[in-house]
Amino acid sequence: MVEVINMPRLSDTMEEGTVAKWNFKVGDKISEGDILAEIETDKATMEFESFYEGTLLHIGVQEGETVPVDVLLAIIGDKKEDISELIKGNETVSKEETIPVTEPQSTTETSSENEAVTKTETNIPEGVEVITMPRLSDTMEEGTVATWNKKIGDKVEEGDILAEIETDKATMEFESFYVGELLAIGVQEGETALVDSLLAIIGPKGTDVSDLMKNFSNTASVKEAPKKAETVVVKEAKTDTTKPVSTLQTKTTEGGRIFISPLAKKLAEEKGINLSQVSGSGENGRIIKRDIENFQPVTSGTQTYAPAGEESFEEVKNSQMRKVIAKRLGESKFMAPHYYLTIEVDMDNAIASRAAINSAPDVKISFNDMIVKASAMALRKHPKVNSHWTDTSTLIAKHIHIGVAVAVDEGLLVPVLKFADQMTFSQIGANVRELAGKARNKKLTPQEMEGSTFTVSNLGMMGIKEFTSIINQPNSAILSVGAIIEKPVVKNGQIAVGNTMTVTLACDHRTVDGATGAAFLQTLRKYIESPVTMFV
Predict the structure, then answer these.
(1) Which of residues 49, 82, 101 is at a domain's end?
(2) Given 168, 346, 348, 509, which residue is catalytic?
(3) CA nearest 511: which of 485, 478, 486, 488?
(4) CATH number where 337 lies
């Protein structure tokens, strides 16, 4: 849906605005609440937020250009929307010719409303400023005063928040551009008034503005909300988080006041964050939405301290190896439909067998060597796991080449043990140590990393109890091996101390069905739990 955004009237006296800066360019994605642009009015430079989501399709006013209120500012919509007619129709747009976003009111209604908010000829006392209901969004026709932050007789400074005003889109803070005493209030809390209705009068202390109030009629424009409805309105203004609260905020830095966007203020109230502890990242230190979302208090004793520092990144160029790893793993994850099967293996016999084997002179094998051997022998009994998918057929390998994942500084390499099912534990261990050393020293040849039919990834030696891996294409499966954990187990109906290891098989569902993967794991378990069977 196309949304036409016109130059808003951001203050009660604004007749035209200048785009100081665009924060987005045509083609950019816009989210609700994003700051579209910074607009200079006759009084201040303000941030103007988007109330819509979509793509920025057109910019009607370039940076540095000044146009009257209601002239086409921008168009937001779906990327493929045709907006040529909208742009053409707004080439010579004026305030009277602006394309309305909402349905226009009838001639009769418009006429009576204009009469209701027209101020008769009268002399305004010196120093007195009449403030009317501002049009705070491009589609706003009327506003409701949710809260007055000042009462009659209070001193008002430039930049003070006079009131919170509910528009057709959000609740916004309305600032004063004048200094003086609040002499009169034209719209009470809970009342709704048309744009340009008398909102308030500010001037020198003690000035009589009774005649001015009489001559500025809001009779037809002010609607008093019913008592029950008033309660609901105020409550919604405090709790509604589906719309951005902020659209504009004066960028002044004087005085000691904490400068914060209304949306950030609302989020801070909801989270119970002390604003004095938050550092603003907006212009001139203004607190904005992301400062509240990223706020992390540091607690010491009974006091809370806000950490201060500079956000920075270290840019590390992706090596060719890292790029290839990312490409291949991404292709595997999104191309092959992965599923995972996990079992827990009793390791007591494996521990005893390894200790007995390593007691022989000049022999030292690892649990990983035993797992690689068990995997190779299990593949011999379940050849469908030792396969890979092509567009025309499934290739079941008659040979068994086990890839062993090795971590290196720049990522992960997988050297390959050719015909691993024919190797002894010692031969597997020696080959793995040689290939891992070459991998870490960047001396592996392409031939030593090609041709795997199955892969083993072992993070158990790093204390990882259980994990899943991405299949190393074109393999159909990869085995993830966790740490050996000592814990209470049930043996022969009795609780005893035992050692278990968790392994997870990731399978490509195109080639390996669930029952096939489960049968492979059952065979693997038998070999690992009874290592002597691997010698038979």
Answers:
(1) 101
(2) 509
(3) 478
(4) 3.30.559.10
